[in-house]
Design a protein that fits this description.
With about 280 residues, the chain is an alpha+beta fold. It has a single domain, classed as Alpha-Beta Complex (Creatine Amidinohydrolase). Helix content is about 30%, strand content about 25%. The chain has five helices and 15 strands. The strands form four sheets. The protein has a five-stranded antiparallel sheet. Strands 1, 2, 4 and 5 form a four-stranded antiparallel sheet that branches. The longest helix is centred in the first third of the chain and has 24 residues.
Length: about 280
């Protein structure tokens, strides 16, 4: 696999950062549009408008025939939900928005989960928090010279810790996960959300990874709907999905899709993200 990994120059990582900032603005626009009565097509349009204004290209639309700019997954939908004017968001729904764009040929990918209005239970608040904590744990484990398994192990361990603290079991999705990113949206290596320390590919300067845990309030088994895209939980439990794209350098890491480069999320780990400029 190592010979298939893309290593970026500093300038190329800077271009990815530019794409990441555009994507961050677009996802902020989607988040601001989320309210009871909004359709998932409205969220798609909000993101598309930011891309168009910035001169960025959606890397979702047309990807293997995908028909939209974002994936909008609601309640028991885990990933790859197709936006629709017929999908009206209701008070208490849980919606995950995943999007990506390219700028000057370089890609960014990010996702968030949030409730529509007030969450129906503390279980669901904890679910989103557990997913976010797992993502940041994985990001904090990234370093040049480290192993890919360290990242996957950190994500998995964080999920187990959250489950113990919250007094419930979270389903951690297998078969779907993070990935390399750069001159294409999906590249080697695949980044599982479960793994072992000190195993796997050695991480190095110039690599970039998208880290994306997916958790459920039930079991981890999934099925794909007849639309050929939407992945749902088999038991009907609700799901959360979060993601950031991260650059790796010998100087440290930088979260390309976070406006603050990941400073707030990494502070608890004593890590200060680098400025790529």
């Amino acid at each position: 696999m190592a010979d298939q990994i893309e290593y970026k120059t500093r300038g190329e990582l800077q271009a990815m950062r530019a794409a990441g900032l555009i994507l961050a603005r677009a996802l902020d626009a989607a988040r601001a549009a989320i309210a009871p009565g909004t359709t998932t097509a409205d969220l798609d349009a909000a993101v598309d408008a930011v891309f168009t204004e910035a001169g960025a290209l959606s890397n979702f639309r047309g990807y293997h025939g995908f028909p939209a700019v974002i994936c909008a997954s609601v309640n028991d939908e885990i990933v790859h939900g197709i936006p629709s004017r017929d999908r009206i968001l209701r008070e208490g729904d849980l919606v995950s928005v995943d999007a990506g764009c390219s700028w000057d040929g370089w890609h960014a990918d990010s996702a968030f989960s949030v409730h529509v209005g007030e969450p129906p239970s503390m279980d669901e608040v904890d679910l989103i928090t557990a997913a976010q904590d797992a993502m940041w744990a994985g990001i904090a484990a990234i370093r040049a010279g480290g192993r890919l398994g360290d990242v996957s192990w950190a994500v998995e361990t964080s999920v187990l810790l959250s489950a113990r603290q919250d007094g419930r079991r979270y389903g951690s999705i297998t078969g779907y996960g993070g990935h390399g990113i750069g001159s294409a949206m999906h590249m080697d290596p695949f980044v599982p959300n479960q793994g072992k320390r000190n195993k796997g590919l050695r991480l190095a300067d110039g690599m970039a990874l998208a880290i994306e845990p997916m958790l459920t309030l039930g079991r981890s088994q999934t099925r794909e709907l007849d639309d050929g895209w939407t992945v749902v939980t088999r038991d009907g439990s609700r799901a959360a999905h979060v993601e950031h794209s991260v650059a790796i350098t010998d100087d440290g890491i930088s979260v390309l899709t976070a406006v603050d480069r990941g400073a707030a999320g990494l502070d608890q780990y004593g890590i200060t993200p680098i400025d790529l400029d």
